[in-house]
């Protein structure tokens, strides 16, 4: 799963580096596609937040609010640019209404009928994204609570999962994972497609920091956390321990 981190001076209000063929993410996709072929699956984060100078996941209107429909048009352009560059899976993570249907139509129209959509169907407005936002030098001021999920609202989260399924999502994601294992389990019960769960940076950092202080066996705690996500029903786990876990399990 690739994320693009352009230089701050290259960002703008509509996230132009994300659709620029010479933007950092699209260049990386082309390079990896050339080097790896079909040896692994290339996934791309299909969102504007890392490319916009305001740090939000969408285009803003004159009042500074995220404009859902204008954002959908940009998501389609992002997805097509990523597919053109070699992405086999696009991951719309902005939680805009109608994003899966719009991207599916756009990809199909561009001839990318076999590109998979991994929908961030239940992405919560969580405190656990902090380390990632620091790592990518996020431009965000404020929060994303107007379009990400309220942590206490399980019913709305499942409704969002069903809406993405109805729009043709090939996979659905719950993010974060450990604080939302009940949502992972509920989604797995109703979803006819694979369910993914994203063990985010804060969840990783808590275990890594505890291990660094000698409070827990880091490898054992990390593997236990991954097992809990699988036990809850996730078919796919996105985690910063992916490479290490592959060694632990072989």
From TrEMBL:
Protein name: Delta-aminolevulinic acid dehydratase
GO BP: protoporphyrinogen IX biosynthetic process
Function: Catalyzes an early step in the biosynthesis of tetrapyrroles. Binds two molecules of 5-aminolevulinate per subunit, each at a distinct site, and catalyzes their condensation to form porphobilinogen.
Keyword Lyase in record: yes
Sorted UniProt keywords: Heme biosynthesis, Lyase, Porphyrin biosynthesis
Source superkingdom: Bacteria
Assembly: Homooctamer.
Disordered, as annotated region: 1-20
Alphabetical list of Gene3D superfamilies matching this protein: Aldolase class I
EC number annotated for this UniProt entry: 4.2.1.24
GO molecular function: porphobilinogen synthase activity; zinc ion binding
Annotated catalysed reactions: 2 5-aminolevulinate = porphobilinogen + 2 H2O + H(+)
């Amino acid at each position: 799963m690739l994320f693009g981190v352009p230089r701050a001076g290259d960002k703008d209000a509509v996230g132009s580096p994300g659709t620029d063929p010479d933007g950092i993410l699209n260049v990386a996709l082309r390079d990896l596609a050339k080097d790896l072929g079909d040896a692994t699956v290339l996934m791309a984060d299909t969102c504007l937040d890392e490319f916009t100078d305001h740090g939000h996941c969408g285009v803003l209107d004159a009042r500074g609010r995220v404009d859902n429909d204008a954002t959908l048009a940009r998501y389609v352009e992002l997805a097509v640019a990523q597919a053109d560059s070699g992405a086999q899976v696009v991951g719309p993570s902005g939680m805009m209404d109608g994003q899966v249907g719009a991207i599916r139509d756009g990809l199909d129209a561009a001839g990318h009928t076999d590109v998979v959509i991994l929908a961030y169907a239940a992405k919560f407005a969580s405190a656990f994204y902090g380390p990632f936002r620091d790592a990518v030098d996020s431009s965000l001021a404020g929060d994303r609570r107007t379009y990400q999920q309220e942590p206490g609202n399980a019913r709305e989260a499942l409704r969002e999962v069903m809406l993405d399924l109805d729009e043709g999502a090939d996979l659905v994601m719950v993010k974060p994972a450990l604080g939302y294992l009940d949502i992972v389990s509920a989604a797995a019960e109703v979803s006819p497609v694979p369910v993914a769960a994203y063990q985010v940076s804060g969840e990783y950092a808590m275990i890594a920091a505890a291990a660094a202080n000698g409070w827990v066996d880091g490898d054992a705690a990390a593997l236990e956390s991954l097992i809990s996500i699988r036990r809850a029903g996730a078919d796919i786990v996105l985690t910063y321990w992916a490479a290490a876990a592959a060694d632990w399990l072989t």
